[in-house]
Amino acid sequence: MRHLDTTLSDTLSAYAMQFAECTHTGCTMSPAETTRFVKSLTAMRKCARNIEQELAVHRLAEESRARGAILDIEASRKFGQLIADPEGKIVRPDFTGGRK
């Protein structure tokens, strides 16, 4: 491989095409080419791991936002039930837990 492409998928695609050409005739790599190939694979593994971790963070953040929205709806519903007193009294919930 002469160069490393800019994206992981492009680099993997280039390697796949290069090795696909070798399926009929076979191919060999010099020790220097093998070293470069191993270094490229190591860099691609690190890149893939970083992408996986970033995706996991985004998924957790999205899940957290969804849970927060559900909690907001439920809290608003409960708050509405606390305020609506049949005798017309205004109920003021104490969210401080008695702390001032």
Quick gist of this model?
With 100 residues, this protein is mainly α. It has three helices and no strands.
Written account of the structure:
The chain has 100 residues and is mainly α. The protein has a domain of 54 residues. Helix content is 70%, strand content 0%. It is built from 3 helices and no strands. The longest helix has 53 residues. The radius of gyration is 29 Å and the shape is rod-shaped. The mean pLDDT is 81.
Strand fraction equals under 5%
**Quaternary status of these chains?**
single chain
How much helix is in the residues? over 70%
> What coarse outline follows from CA principal-axis ratios?
rod-shaped
Task: Give the strand tally.
Answer: 0
| Category from helices, strands and their pairing | mainly alpha
Query: What number is the mean pLDDT?
Result: 81
Secondary-structure element order, N to C: HHH
Uncertain parts: none
How far apart, in Å, are the first and last alpha carbons?
68 Å
Q: Biggest sheet, open or closed, and with what strands and sense?
A: none
How big is the Rg? 29 Å
How many helices? 3
